[in-house]
Amino acid sequence: MLVLLPPSEGKAAGGRGAPLDLGALSLPGLTAARAAVLDELVGLCSGDPDPSRNDKARDVLGLSEGLRGEVAKNAALRTSGARPAGETYTGVLYDSLGLASLDTAAKRRAARSLLIFSGLWGAVRVTDRIPSYRCSMGVRLPGLGALAAHWRAPLASALPEAAGNGLVLDLRSAAYAAAWKPVGGLAERTATVRVLHAPTRKVVSHFNKATKGRIVRSLLSAGAAPKNPAGLVEALRDLGYEVEAQPPARAGRGWSLDVLVTDVH
């Protein structure tokens, strides 16, 4: 099983250890594309001797006045301390996933099965050591253009091998899903998830992220290993989730799962 996660805007402060080693990251087929984004992002954010005054970088990255410090953070990406991606990303989904509190076996499963998408790195595993940064998939860099388009070909080459012949559980938001879409037989083994308020059948926002984090934690903790979307539906129901499944209407399409919740706080 391969689980595709979105990143989070919130990130822990940089680590105290060694800085980024691009060549040590998983999915080495993405190294050249990562280097291109990193070079341009660092150059953009280093364009003013005082990064806090770099309005061009702030505009490109879509940062508010209160987030000027993120420009300086990006300028130092090559020298800042790195930490595992599973510790770097914070926020609602990652708080609910709670990687640090998983038992040893579940942590090993997380290292094998979780991929976090990123505007800067393309996709990384939770064990990959990265510095804290600010660069969403919706950014359009002056030299490279839209990042979702930049990542499309490299991810299309690297991810089918990472997925193998198993299930793909796609929990990404729309901006990150635009960077890579499974096709053919792989699409048929892919399941996306919506979280709906059971009484109203309306999509919930904040609780959507929390529920997705809990779903991943439940699967990892239970050692569930569904081979396909139908097996995933069975596994989630066994774990106590209320799931409605829509199999694909035709070949080459994925499954859509609705997880129904009553508590939206």
Over all CA atoms, what is the radius of gyration? 19 Å
Coarse morphology: globular
Structural class label: alpha/beta
Uncertain spans: none
Number of helices: 11
Kindly report the average pLDDT value: 93
The count of DSSP E runs of length 2 or more, i.e. the number of strands, is 12
Fraction in helix: 25-40%
Please give the largest β-sheet.
8 strands, mixed
Strand content: 15-25%
First-residue to last-residue Cα separation: 30 Å
Oligomeric composition of the shown chains: single chain
What is the helix/strand order? EHHHEHHHEEEEEHEHHEEHHEE
Describe the protein.
By secondary structure, this protein is α/β, with parallel strands linked by helices. Helix content is about 40%, strand content about 15%. The protein contains eleven helices and twelve strands. Strands 1, 3, 4, 8, 9, 10, 11 and 12 form an eight-stranded mixed beta sheet that branches. It has a two-stranded antiparallel sheet with strand order 2-5. α1 packs across α3 and α6 packs across α10. The model has no long low-confidence stretch (mean pLDDT about 95).
